[in-house]
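Dear all,

This email documents one entry for the complex benchmark we are building for the journal club exercise. For each entry we list the sequence lines for every component of the assembly. Then comes the predicted three-dimensional structure of the complex as a C-alpha cell string, followed by one or two observations. Please use this as the template for your own entries, and keep the labels exactly as they appear.
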Amino acid sequence: MVVSPPRSPAADALISQQHVQLARMLGQARGKVSERCMYYRKPPKGVEAGWIVVQGTNAERQAGLFMKGFVPLQQYGFVNPQSVEAPDPEADNAPAYRTWAPILLKPGGPEEFPVSQLIEMRWYDARYCPVPGVRFPQLEGASLTKFWCPECETIYYHKAIHLARHLRSSHEWDRAEIGAYGQEAGINFAKEASEGRAAVEAFEYSMPAATPEPALPPIQMDVEEFRAPRRASNKETR
Ligand SMILES: [Zn+2]
C-alpha cells in the first residue's frame, strides 16, 4: 500500500470537488421529477458493491431494480431531492445534503454505508460529509490510500486506476509514462487496477472436430416407372 506524503492543509482544501459530485450523482434518481424516490442498496457483488443510492419507486422501475438485485431501504422513507433543508444552502455540499440527510440523521442510517463508498465520497472527512459530525463506526480501523496527482498536486484519488485515468485524460500521459511514474512512486498500476485478481485470465476454446457425415450406401431398389403416353393437345386434334 502506498501512502503519499502529507500535503499542506491549504493544498488539501483545493482538492477537486469530484467526491461532492459523486455524492450528488448517486443521490440523483434518474427519471421523472414527479417520481417518488427512496434509498436502495446495490447488489453485494460487482461495481459499487453494497453502495447506497437513490432511485425512483415506480412499479416498473422497481421491478427492473429488483431483477438486478437492488434492495429497498423503506425504513428511511421517501427522499425528495428537491427539498431544501440544508443548514447552509450556499455550502458546496448543500445539494448532497438534501438527498443524504434523511438516512444520515436516522439512527442506524450512517452504519448502512459500506466503507468503500465512504472512502470514495470522502465522508470519512467531516468537511465533505453532507451532515457534518456524523459518526461512521464501520470506519474504525479502516485504512485508505491517497494517490496524489504528480501534475496538479492538489488532486488525489483513492484508487490507482482513477489516477491513471486522470493522468491520461487531463495530462495526456501515455501508458509508458504512467508505468514509469508508477515504478518511481512505487505504485503497481496493473496490480492496483485488478485489486488482487489475476489481471490476465487464460481461456482456451476449441471447437469440436467436425465429423463428416457418414456416406450412406446407395439404396438399391427396383423402380417401376409408369409414364402415360403424351396426349395430343385439343388444338392438334381439331
Ligand atoms: Zn492532475
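Observations: Residues 15 and 155 are 5 Å apart (CA to CA). The beta strands are 37-41, 52-56, 71-72, 78-79, 147-148, 156-157.
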